[in-house]
Amino acid sequence: MKSHMHPVKMFLQYLLLFLMLPLCSSTNTITPNQPFRDGDLLVSKQSRFALGFFSPRNSTLRYIGVWYNTIREQTVVWILNRDHPINDNSGVLSVNTFGNLLLHRGNTHVWSTNVSISSVNATVAQLLDTGNLVLIQNDDKRVVWQSFDHPTDTMLPHMKLGLDRRTGLNRFLTSWKSPEDPGTGEYSFKLDVNGSPQLFLSMGSKWIWRMGPWNCLGFVGVPEMLTTFIFDIRFWNTGDEVSMEFTLVNSSTFSSIKLGSDGLYQRYTLDERNRQLVAIWSAARDPCDNYGRCGLNSNCDVYTGAGFECTCLAGFEPKSQRDWSLRDGSGGCVRIQGTNTCRSGEGFIKIAGVKPPDASTARVNESLNLEGCKKECLNDCNCRAYTSADVSTGGSGCLSWYGDLMDIGTLAQGGQDLFVRVDAIILGMRSYLQN
Ligand SMILES: *[C@@H]1O[C@H](CO)[C@@H](O)[C@H](O)[C@H]1NC(C)=O
Ligand SMILES: *[C@@H]1O[C@H](CO)[C@@H](O)[C@H](O)[C@H]1NC(C)=O
Ligand SMILES: *[C@@H]1O[C@H](CO)[C@@H](O)[C@H](O)[C@H]1NC(C)=O
Ligand SMILES: *[C@@H]1O[C@H](CO)[C@@H](O)[C@H](O)[C@H]1NC(C)=O
Ligand SMILES: *[C@@H]1O[C@H](CO)[C@@H](O)[C@H](O)[C@H]1NC(C)=O
Fold first, then answer.
1. How far is the CA of 47 from the centre of ligand 5 (A)?
2. Ligand 2, closest atom to CA 57?
3. Structural domains for the chain
4. Residue-wise over 102-116: b if at least 16 C-beta within 10 A, else e?
5. Which end of the chain has the least Cβ crowding within 10 Å, N or C?
6. Where are the transmembrane segments (predicted)?
7. How far is the CA of 198 from the centre of ligand 5 (A)?
8. How does residue 15 score in pLDDT terms, banded at 50, 70 and 90?
9. What are phi and psi of 15, to 5 degrees?
C-alpha cells in the first residue's frame, strides 16, 4: 500500500501541475519589466502567429522564431538569431533601458536590435497578427524596428522585399543552410535595382532564376501570377524605394512564399480544414527557367518540339557549333560574320510571347511609346532590341538593350513581344515569308 500515492497528495500534485501551466503562459508584448524566457510564448492578438524558443529537427540548439500558430506542424517563418544560436535554455529576450530588444545569455549579448531611441524605458515589443515582431515607441507609437525588415526564408503578406532608398536597407529572403540548420544559407531571393528592377533567385553570387522585370501586370517571368489571383502584387519604383509586396484579395485566405534550403522557391496556401500548408506553385520548373541556359543572343523555347530548346536569334549563329550539336547551348550565339545592321536598311523582327532579356542592362524610358521606342533604337546602331515597359495599357514605355541579350525565353502563356534588330537581308526574307 505504501507504494501507492495518497489521493490528496495526488490531487495536490495535479493541482501543482495545473498551477504551473500559467508560468509558460502567453502574452503578446515584451516590456522592460516583462522579459521573455525559454519556454514562454508570445502570441499575436488573434492567435495567428506565435514567437518562442525552438530547436530545429535533430538539433538541441535554441533559436527564437516566429511560427504559424494555427497549423499542426511547427513551421518557422522568421528567426531572430539564425546565426547566433544558444546552446542551452538560459536565453532571455528583453527590452533594455535603452529601448532596444536584446537577446542575452547571462551577461553575454547574443543579439540586439541596435536602434537609437531617445527616451529610456519607452519601448515595447509586440507580435502582430501579420507575423511581424515590432518594437514600438510608447509615446508616439512609432515602429522603430520590425522583423519584416529582416526577413529569413519566408515572405508573408504585407512584407516588403526590395530597397528602401532613404535608408539603404535591402530586404531579401535567404534560405536555411539545411533543414536542420537555420543559419544563413547559400540561396537568396533578391531585388536587383539595375536597369529595370528584377527579382533574382541566386546561389551565392550566381543568378539561377530571374522573375523578370515588372511590366505593370506582373513580373514577366511568372505569367501564372495574374493580379486577379488570390493575392495582389504591388510594386513601387520611386525616389524612396524599389520594392514589392503581396497582399491577400480575401483576408480569410492565407498565402506565403518560402525559399527552401535546397533553393526551391515555393508558394503555399493554408488548408484550414486540415491545418496545414499546401505548396501550390514553385519556380524554375522548366529548363528555360535556368538563367542563361542558352547563353547570349539566343532564345530558350521548350515548345518547339525540336528536342533542343536553344535557338540563336535571327542573324546570329552558335558560338561553338560543336557544343550546340551536343545540345549544350550555354556558350550562346554570335552575330553572323558579314551582317550589317548599321544604317544599311536594317530593321526589327518580332519574337512574340517571351520573357524579355535580362533587364539589368536595359535602358528605361517611361515617356516613349512603342513607336518612339523603335525610332530611338533604330537611330543607335548599338541598340539590339526593344520592348514595352508597361503592357497593362496595351504597351507603353520603352525598354531597350545596347549589347548582348541574355536569358530570353518563350513562355507557355503571357510573355511579351520583343523586337530584335536584323539586317536588310533577314528583314526582307521575313517580310517575304510573312506575305
Ligand atoms: C526603467 O526600468 C527599470 C526596470 O524596471 C527600472 O529599474 C528603472 O528605474 C527604469 N528607469 C526609468 C528612468 O524609469
Ligand atoms: C534526424 O533524426 C531522424 C530521426 O531521429 C533520423 O532518422 C535522421 O537520420 C536524422 N538526420 C540527420 C541528418 O541527422
Ligand atoms: C550598432 O549601431 C552602431 C551605429 O548605429 C554601429 O556602430 C555598431 O556597430 C552596431 N552594433 C552592432 C552589434 O551591430
Ligand atoms: C473568402 O474566403 C472565405 C473562406 O474561404 C469564403 O468563405 C468567403 O466566401 C470568401 N469571400 C469572398 C468575398 O470571396
Ligand atoms: C525619353 O525619351 C525622350 C524622347 O526621346 C527624351 O526626350 C527623354 O530625355 C528620355 N528620357 C530618359 C529618362 O531617357
1. 52
2. 1
3. 1-150 (2.90.10.10), 154-283 (no CATH), 287-434 (no CATH)
4. bbbbeeeebbebeee
5. N
6. none
7. 22
8. very low
9. -60, -40
